[in-house]
Amino acid sequence: MKIEDDEKNFNMTGSRDPFANPFPASDGDRRAIWDMLVERDITAFLAADWSMVADDFVADAFLGIDGQKSVSPAGWRLAFPTLESYRDEWLRQARDFAETTFAEDPRQAIFWTTTLEEIEISGGAALARKMFDGTIEKADGTRDVLKWQTLYHCRFHEGRWKICGFTGYLPNPMEAK
Questions:
Q1: Cα–Cα distance for residue pair 85/99, rounded to 1 Å
Q2: What are the tens digits of pLDDT across the range 75-90?
Q3: Nearest CA among 23, 18, 32 for reference residue 160
Q4: Rg for the chain (alpha carbons), in Å?
């Protein structure tokens, strides 16, 4: 479900405020999912601290698919059959990122590249589409390109929303090639 523009948070210039949860206070479920998938995930990634997000997963049901930026499911891979395998790769990427010197504030840049405005909820399940579209300038003058999307599979588990899997590293936009 895509929310209407009048329900989003905007800054003074009328553009999207990437640090503000776009869901209204009356929509606690979507606000909680956004906080988990955007605010907490980015903060933990930048700190390379898995403990900040460890409780955001349903460990025994986790499954992660790497779409390898391909529109064809024939190219997708079961890259993360367990939460532990995903945790190890997440930590590797976070540590590599932390060792990079940037010419701009990486937190601000990641928030600007990240959009999560579509969350479908049915019963105790949710499907959230997190999109990345932008770059982060490195100190050496090159840029890291962040241009993919991830579909997160969530469940209301043990009293709150948690991630039970994802289909990620999909092209953004999804266009037939």
A1: 22
A2: 999 999 999 999 999 9
A3: 32
A4: 16
Stated length of the chain: 177
Strands 114-122, 160-170: parallel, antiparallel or unpaired by DSSP? unpaired
The backbone region for 73, taken as left when phi is positive above 0, alpha when psi lies in -120 to 50, beta otherwise, is alpha
Q: Give the DSSP letter of residue 40.
A: I
Q: Is the pLDDT reported for residue 136 higher than 90?
A: yes
**For 102-114, b where at least 16 C-beta lie within 10 A, e where not — what string?**
beeebeebbbbbb
CA 105 to chain centre: 19
Q: What is the reported pLDDT for 176?
A: 60
| CB-based contacts of 129, cutoff 8 Å, min separation 6 | 116, 118, 119, 149, 150, 151, 152
Here the tokens at position 22 are 């776009």
Tokens standing for 129? 């589409």
Q: In what order do the strands lie in the sheet with 125-137?
A: 77-80, 63-66, 160-170, 143-157, 125-137, 114-122
Question: What are 4-32's pLDDT values in tens digits?
Answer: 333 333 333 447 899 999 999 999 999 99
